[in-house]
Amino acid sequence: MNRQAQAVVLFLVGAALLHAGLSGLYLRYVKAGLQPMLLASGTVLVVTALATLWYERRGAGTAAVGAGAPGQAPAPPGSPRPADHRPTPDDHHHGPDDHHHGPDGHHREPRISWLLVLPLFALILVAPPALGSYSAVRTGTALQPPYGYAALPAGSPLRLSVVDYAGRAAYDRGRSLGGRPVQVTGFVALDRTGAPYLVRMALNCCAADAQPVKIGLTGRIPPVLQPDSWLQVTGIYTPRRTRDPVNGGPIPFLAVTQAKPVPTPRDPYDETWNQ
Amino acid sequence: MAITEEAPPGAEPTAAGTGPDPTAAGAGPAGSTPRTAAAVPGRAAGSTAGEGWHLTSPGALTVLLLVVVVVQGPLRRALGAPVMQSWMTVFVAVVVQALPFLVLGVLLSAALAVFVPPSFFARALPRRPALAVPVAGVAGAMLPGCECASVPVAGALVRRGVTPAAALAFLLSAPAINPIVLTATAVAFPHDPEMVLARFTASLLVACAMGWLWQRLGRPGWLRPPAPGAYEGRSRGAAFWGSVRHDVMHAGGFLVVGAMAAATLKAVAPASWLRTAAGNPVVAVLALAVLAVLLSICSEADAFVAASLSQFSLTARLAFLVVGPMIDLKLFAMQAGTFGRAFAVRFAPATFALAVLVSVLAGAVLL
Hints:
The structure holds two protein chains of two kinds.
Chain A: H1 3-23, H2 35-57, H3 117-126, H4 133-138, E1 158-159, H5 162-171, E2 182-190, E3 196-202, E4 211-219, E5 230-243, E6 250-261, E7 269-270
Parallel strand pairs in A: 1-2, 3-7, 4-6
Antiparallel strand pairs in A: 2-3, 2-5, 3-4, 5-6
Helix pairs in contact in A: 1-2, 1-3
Chain B: H1 22-26, H2 57-70, H3 72-78, H4 82-115, H5 118-124, H6 129-139, H7 147-159, H8 164-177, H9 179-188, H10 194-217, H11 236-268, H12 272-278, H13 281-295, H14 302-308, H15 314-326, H16 329-339, H17 341-366
Helix pairs in contact in B: 4-7, 4-11, 6-8, 6-10, 7-8, 7-16, 8-10, 8-15, 9-10, 9-14, 10-15, 10-17, 11-16, 13-15, 14-15, 15-17, 16-17
């Protein structure tokens, strides 16, 4: 890959990171707190691409001495593409001296650099969805004993996250809920026997470490449940519980009184463990 | 001697097969239509679009972009299966998560290479390598971030003449003992605060031991000299951005390899295997150590995953936390890219064995 192609790839990867960071697409893959880093690194990659084209155009081959201060600034956007200002590479490709032109000489990056186009295509053309029921069923519930039970607001129904309800139900036997109706939002997953769960993937850093927290559904379950569809479920605590067949973790149940389909939330992951 | 001699230019730093190729590089104007370059046999520009053609790389890139845009509909349908979607999500997530840290590391590395004179390191580090190793290991605590940042920085340190043993100690310790990672560990193990101490101690011990081991047994020939003297004679701006471009393209490609491996494991391997492994204490330690290598999770997040593996002993989980930041698929690929394959195939297994051993000892003493 020569340096013009590299500049194009760098520019596209940087632009893709900026696009993902600005559009909220990044929330499908990484934690919300990574946004500033994503935007900064996208900008750096775009600037690197423009700087590469800029120095290429100035003729890196002649930069032996005194390519001085003006060169420190990166090229402004829209600087013309260096079509035919390239020095003949013959000057630099004789024998072991190659190295002294180093990364900015005329050697190319190894072919492995081409692989950088794969995440680019995946992100721009396919934009895969956040992890859903497939991963949720294959992975054991990650429910941990909560540090404490925060006081709950007034109002009915009580809005809770899947993780919050599951923690109170499994480790506090629902005492802090006081029999109040609760409302939780998550996606549907069906295990091998067809039993329905309401799941939220809990995320610490990126989707590679996302783990499900599951609530079993009982009571007035909708007759048709589509895996991966998002539901807002209203129900009350029930002492029924089971163990996750994958890792033996506790899965509390919720007695459903009402279930309503909702669109996928902006941040599909639960990030309460990220504080 | 803290400063090594500049190694003479050795092997071509690019991978075999991408050597000097003046015809294809110089002839075509950028973005020209693909043209065959018959004079250069055996160089298909890009395995993705190559198919035996010989293209200039901008030409190949143009064709590749066009083809993918044209066939995107069928491509999306083909990738619609849950296992493929899950694979792609994890793949994209690992790359998107790691790229900012990689860029941070690359910027630091470029700054080290261009703006910090070699004499600085000569003064900052003890002259005796045996002492420089622990100093560099502790200095790893100052690099905030995960392992993707430490590989390019360690590469720049070697390039700047820091003795490789010290640079390697830094490479291993930085992702494991920096404050961000230790804080995350404390948060993930609220009931086992000794886990933080055990992680810090075991990681630092392994890093220093590997540094000393390299100093005693390592041969300079195993370590590919990372383009010595690359930045002399050019403006600092050109050198800085050239270094950033080179490192991102290089390490980025290897990062993609590692992300593909991690995504494959996450999407395909059944998690119930782990349950079987947790029963036997010896198997448990080895299983989590291998899992850390395969999963390639960022060191800032691995503590939370370890905490959720609650069916395993604390010692096994310590092994997961010590091995993961030092050696995993993604890191192995990046180390092979930066320091050469001959280095990586020796360094990685030794690191793995030592990390498991020290984890078990630290677990026995501290946990």
